[in-house]
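User: Hello! My lab partner asked me to get a predicted holo structure for this protein. The small molecule is zinc ion, SMILES included with the sequence. Please write out the structure tokens.
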Amino acid sequence: MSQKFYCKYCGTERSSISSLTAAHCDKNPNGKYHVPYEGEEKSEYYCKFCGTERSSISSLTASHCDKNSDGKYHVPYDGDEQSRYYCKYCGMERSNISSLTASHCDKNPDGKYHVPR
Ligand SMILES: [Zn+2]
Ligand SMILES: [Zn+2]
Ligand SMILES: [Zn+2]
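Assistant: Hello! Below are the structure tokens for the protein in complex with zinc ion.
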């Protein structure tokens, strides 16, 4: 019963979703409040825009992301760890997020690079 919920934009930690989403988030590019990270707890978190790796959501989201088309900071990938990652816009396949997001995507309507689905 000690589950923790983390904001995917800043890593703030609360014991319930309602207390997390009740508080303001400085890093949410789309709204004012914290948004729960929906993936599993992991030993390493990867930015879904560039593949940068950190051991916690708060350290990942503390630094700027050059490839985030939506905001300024890294955002954790919330899918499961996989042996292959596919671009959600064009289906390009790579063995890790950083190599997938390193190359340009012709079909991404919001940004320039492939984004893992
Ligand atoms: Zn937040
Ligand atoms: Zn990033
Ligand atoms: Zn793509």
